Amino acid sequence: MNNKKRFYEYGLIEASFPRGKGNKISDVPGVRVGHVTKVEGENVRTGVTIVDPGIQNLFRNKIPGAIAVGNGYGKLTGITQVEELGTIEAPIGLTSTLSVGAALQGIVTILSGREALGPIDGPNVVVGEVNDGFLNDIHVDSINVEDVENAYKNLTEDFSVGNVGGGTGSRAFSWKGGIGSSSRVIKVENKTYTLGVLVQTNYGGSLSIAGVPVGKLLGETDFDEFLPGNLGGSCMVALATDAPFSSRQLKRIAQRTFLGLARTGSVISPTSGDYAIAFSTNRAGVEGVGTKMLLPDSVLYRFFLTAVEATEEAVYDALFAAETMRGRDGNVRDAIPVERVVKIIKSYRHAA
Amino acid sequence: MNNKKRFYEYGLIEASFPRGKGNKISDVPGVRVGHVTKVEGENVRTGVTIVDPGIQNLFRNKIPGAIAVGNGYGKLTGITQVEELGTIEAPIGLTSTLSVGAALQGIVTILSGREALGPIDGPNVVVGEVNDGFLNDIHVDSINVEDVENAYKNLTEDFSVGNVGGGTGSRAFSWKGGIGSSSRVIKVENKTYTLGVLVQTNYGGSLSIAGVPVGKLLGETDFDEFLPGNLGGSCMVALATDAPFSSRQLKRIAQRTFLGLARTGSVISPTSGDYAIAFSTNRAGVEGVGTKMLLPDSVLYRFFLTAVEATEEAVYDALFAAETMRGRDGNVRDAIPVERVVKIIKSYRHAA
Amino acid sequence: MNNKKRFYEYGLIEASFPRGKGNKISDVPGVRVGHVTKVEGENVRTGVTIVDPGIQNLFRNKIPGAIAVGNGYGKLTGITQVEELGTIEAPIGLTSTLSVGAALQGIVTILSGREALGPIDGPNVVVGEVNDGFLNDIHVDSINVEDVENAYKNLTEDFSVGNVGGGTGSRAFSWKGGIGSSSRVIKVENKTYTLGVLVQTNYGGSLSIAGVPVGKLLGETDFDEFLPGNLGGSCMVALATDAPFSSRQLKRIAQRTFLGLARTGSVISPTSGDYAIAFSTNRAGVEGVGTKMLLPDSVLYRFFLTAVEATEEAVYDALFAAETMRGRDGNVRDAIPVERVVKIIKSYRHAA
Amino acid sequence: MNNKKRFYEYGLIEASFPRGKGNKISDVPGVRVGHVTKVEGENVRTGVTIVDPGIQNLFRNKIPGAIAVGNGYGKLTGITQVEELGTIEAPIGLTSTLSVGAALQGIVTILSGREALGPIDGPNVVVGEVNDGFLNDIHVDSINVEDVENAYKNLTEDFSVGNVGGGTGSRAFSWKGGIGSSSRVIKVENKTYTLGVLVQTNYGGSLSIAGVPVGKLLGETDFDEFLPGNLGGSCMVALATDAPFSSRQLKRIAQRTFLGLARTGSVISPTSGDYAIAFSTNRAGVEGVGTKMLLPDSVLYRFFLTAVEATEEAVYDALFAAETMRGRDGNVRDAIPVERVVKIIKSYRHAA
């Protein structure tokens, strides 16, 4: 873990609900994240990140889940089964575009080792990706089954953000991006629930931080990148909660994460693969499983608001954590100048 | 038309592409808008707005269209046929929640009168609504077929914004809202296309204008309204363009309008009916109709960006145009204090 | 109610599960159906059918529901809210294409009378239709609010099938069709559930009854009707059950009804509005409502099989119940020759 | 290729339109199919099938495509991008459940070799699967990148059906299934188009052939297999045409293939992964590509009818071509007794 101060520690943005203790997706009890980061030679700048819901025998003990599609230009696996059954049954993988097959095989291998799969058990695995090809040679088989197993072994609540795992070679706007995270604690009557978000940023637009047009003030030229001939980019979002919701409710929450991206300056580019994978660690939402009551739709507003705010903040977290990287063919992606950005935002604040 | 200065005339927000000459949806050639505004007695504060694509014999000469759903808590008609066939074949109606049936009948009546429908012709009509029940008694049959016919007779390029038509009794955040509009002119190679947006606002959140947290600075208390027991609210969006796009492309453009709402402070509340109805006045996108080439996906980024920006601006347009209104049971919805808001935003600008 | 023997009484088709006692949708406890049939002068041959789930204060006590779209060329209302919230909150209306607005207003009126709606309550009403324009002048305002109220007053478990209500002027293949119904009783462990289907047929193809190509053997010429210039037709399906299912599960069940139509010879024509509206009278599937356990997905196969079989049989029920009708401009739609059909089918059976 | 007579050669079923010359998907000009069949030791009974549209530089010269989901319990890749962009850009793979990752990597490898992919090109690959675990040990890495490359090398118009490629270890109802195919030639005005279907069967129900309840007459016990604890099964469908259609039109055609499965006795089981991947080899349907006119929706009925009939027939083709196989743990799946089935069906025909 690097020593950079995290975005939220600068106090630049308000939260409608209190942050979780680590301000990470792993604040949701049980949820852990593992990275493998591959920085090799001149041209390999990639990795894989596993988000594990922390359920014993997850394949048997499926949890409620849903996937929202902001723009479907991505190689996500597993979506139709999540849509049909409303459940997640395997750890989630985030990696580089052409490593999806390897990540898929890696996660099946992990499940086979852990859960004594029967002869006809074919788990449904959700793997997402971003195209880190600016810094990374995506046509090299950088990620293999062993890497995925190692990411799984690295699962921890105290995971790093920035240039790690699936975010190793990725960007955000004109700068280096990567993995970011955030969480909130929400009260419903007497009970307290956590909602956490993890992002793997690789998209552009005109960067806005907490409403301040930081991109323009820094002379960002990202817009031109989206003109014909250039690729836009993607953002993967994983969203976890321990609140008892059905897959239908989780899908609605997941859809709000794209509004969080909008706040950062994204218009969800036509060539982006923007997906939000949401799950609840509470199994009550799986039909036939339990008699525990789900939360009613009437409480959803605060979870929607949280999904928006936590996603927005997780993107800034990735930006502030990332470090300048040189990669494929000498391409360089600079870290955002944190101190300058903080100054710009604060000068706005003073004015109000 | 009232004499209030329109939002964009204050120069508070940049546009990535130039505005159309009226900065309205009617800048798209052929498109016209007609209102009927009903302010009667203490309790009737409602109306109907017609958006007409301006195509001769529209029912026979269907145009490419698509509808995006931000949150489906609304009584929109006609969506499945638009989804199935990718076409719009009737003028679009925007009215109050319980007047949808009347608006539907009214538009069928208009088509029957204009287009000599055959004995089995049953046009598909898209009618959207917002719940203006705070100021308006929605259980009274305020809107009838004749009103809809009158709205149609009122079609004009030079339509009013604010407390008119379907926006007569509606709100935006803590203030009076209504109808707003905006447009942009986009160049693609040698050709110039217009994209225009019209909104019927009736939603809340924490108002942000061009990134400035205006709602909080004005002491907005709207958030509490969304707690259980209160209704959130809706935003209807109509989006027109003369660019030759297929219904698939129009749907993707329509989906971006919700990102524009996000910029204004909406999280797309769980009780909102947020729909974007998009159409192209160029029939090339209807299969079997013409040999004219459609624009490729590679130009979509600028239309996405425009959909976001024009929707955002149309909301501010509605807010700035609306006037304080007293209605049902003495309920009052105040106009936003325009001069104070302008000052707040400008003080931010100076600081940068 | 006419005295014709119902299809199932001929013993021509097997049922994988036992039929309910009336072999109708009203075998699901609480569910009732009401018709108003309008046969006036030469040109009015239409009506409205209400399917009521039988829940006290349904608007407040919403039930799990879902709508599947076989082909969306129809004027169905209310679908986006059912999709978003997974609930049905009003009786379902089935009528003629251009009477949807009237049916919508009628059902709102019924709810206002029964449920003391609050000032901002805007119920979501699902109304479906078929185009009965061959026998009926759809451009006349045949259905009004009072008719809908009368259909509601006529609610009964012992409703008629054939040329009644929304099926008054409709067809099936080359013959007169109308309303048909069927039901099954399904055991799951110690408990017994009922699934019932009601159809409003108005579609074509090449009629097959229980696998026998009856249409071809009767010299059916319906296929030609679907060539360009002719309208195909629609089938509305209402499906009720008292089994505790979520809206997700109900949607999957609803989707199977189209496979039942396929068995009768439909290919779901491009100009059909084929929709299946499914609901459970058990509220356990509404999030936040109860702690009762839903049935697991593992029992769905028998409900899928039942949805297919009951829909198929309900179509034959409509065909066998309908009677020859003369209508608009002297158009005539003949009843299927029941005795001849029975003979044809039986001769097949003997051969095996 | 085995020497068994193909189903259609028995003359048991009528075709509304004439069959293509090989009665296979490869009757669509350019389309070819390649298999690799792996029968090794006791436990490996699997393979991979490639369906190639026959377009030079397919990744650059994308074609219109669409995917319909009958039931989403399957591990299909690539669907969101096809949904978003309406295009197919890589050969389609069909394999065993846990070999999807390998097939994905194999097809990317093929594209890299053939098309000189740029540094950031990440092709979207559609791979489908069925669970052949009854006869095959799916947990062994039977399929590797080289196999996929070999399937590609084997591409031919004159491909085999039955126990080959992705159908090596699969079933149909109570019997051995596999790969089947069928095609039709459709006239539209002066022009002639071909529509071809290829199925990879692995599903059950109560087998009906051309309306005759063959399953019941053969004492089929398949139904019991679907009770809790047993797995249902899947059917993958690839559908090709040279008719100029948009992705929207292709999706509607694809959805009809499930009605073809219904005719064979399927109710689309809750545990099936039933997907139909449709494409047109005519690029006119890709926005921005050409000025050639698409076919209007008014001709769709005959393509719907064809999709239903060709899919139905392709399933019988697979059943009649398949041969008895012994596999994993000594499990045996018998071939259907063709001569007996032909006799049963003919005795029905005589009776009529």
Describe this structure in words.
4 copies of one chain form a homotetramer. Chain A has 352 residues and is of the alpha+beta class. Chain A has a single domain (7-351), classed as L-amino peptidase D-ALA esterase/amidase (4-Layer Sandwich), CATH 3.60.70.12. Helices cover 27% and strands 24% of the residues of chain A. Chain A is built from 8 helices and 14 strands. Chain A has helices at 79-85, 100-115, 145-153, 214-217, 222-225, 247-264, 300-321, 338-351, and strands at 32-40, 44-52, 63-72, 87-88, 92-96, 127-130, 171-172, 175-176, 179-188, 191-202, 234-241, 273-280, 325-326, 332-333. In chain A, the strands form 4 sheets. In chain A, strands 4-3-12-11-10-9 form a 6-stranded mixed sheet. Chain A has a 4-stranded mixed sheet with strand order 1-2-5-6. Chain A is globular, with a radius of gyration of 19 Å. Mean pLDDT of chain A is 93; it is low at 224-231. Chains B and C meet through strand 3, helix 1 and helix 2 of B and strand 3, helix 1 and helix 2 of C.
